[in-house]
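Support request, please re-run this one:
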Amino acid sequence: MGSFSIWHWLIVLLIVVMVFGTKKLKNMGSDLGSAVKGFKDGMKDGASDADHPPAGQVTNAGTAAKETIDVQAKEKT
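Re-run finished. Output below.
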């Protein structure tokens, strides 16, 4: 009773096709496929962005100390 046979799955598939129709199922499949492809492309872009820091971001700690501006000191003068 815990496992389903092939006949159970075929009956479920038949009911799903009768409820939604083949055209709607095809559209849902293509939408799902394009969503997965977009997700993979986004993950690939995110990985390449992690390799290259954004413009203007300081990556070396030595140069970060040279470019630091003390705002309070400028206000006093």
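The mean pLDDT is 77. Residues 21-45 form one domain.
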